[in-house]
Amino acid sequence: MEVKYKIIDVDPSQHSIVVRYYTDLLSEDSLATSFNSDGSIARRSDGSPQRCQTDYNFNLWQTNPPLTTDDIKKIANDGAPYDWFKLKHDILDPNVDTSLDVVSELLNTQFDAVKPVVAPLISETSNTSNTSSTLSEDHIEKLIEGILNNSSANNSNT
Questions:
Q1: Are 84 and 52 in contact (CB under 8 A)?
Q2: Would you call 85 exposed, middle or buried from its count of C-beta atoms within 10 A (0-12, 13-18, 19+)?
Q3: Are 60 and 73 in contact (CB under 8 A)?
Q4: Among 28, 90, 140, 150, who pairs with 96 as Cys (CB 3.0-4.6 Å)?
Q5: Is-above-0.70 flag for pTM?
Q6: pLDDT tens across 25-47, in order?
């Protein structure tokens, strides 16, 4: 999949740009979201759709030194929604099951959310050479226990 992009708007008062992303399979027209009263796509002066699902606004935080053309292209490139396009391509592919039939048995059923266990961030001591932080066996066991307890709780809710 090749994702393409173009900058379609700039707003100096907000120091921002709007970038539009599309692919060969998902064209700008297929991603259009603004329509005229007759159902036709509302178009910009260049003939492209007025608005698309993948028009992303980026505030450009750097002001000093001013951004270069390459900086702006990198921001636009790095913001490309690759995962979203992969999902949309999969939905269009008849060989990929995206029916979500499994969800039908979950509809309108209340579940209790269980807060996930997140391991604490471990950082190295910056002032001491040859010293690194590691998790103790006790801490690892508690993390595993927390994961197993969450897994058991989630399984008992089904």
A1: no
A2: buried
A3: no
A4: 90
A5: no
A6: 999 999 999 999 999 999 999 99
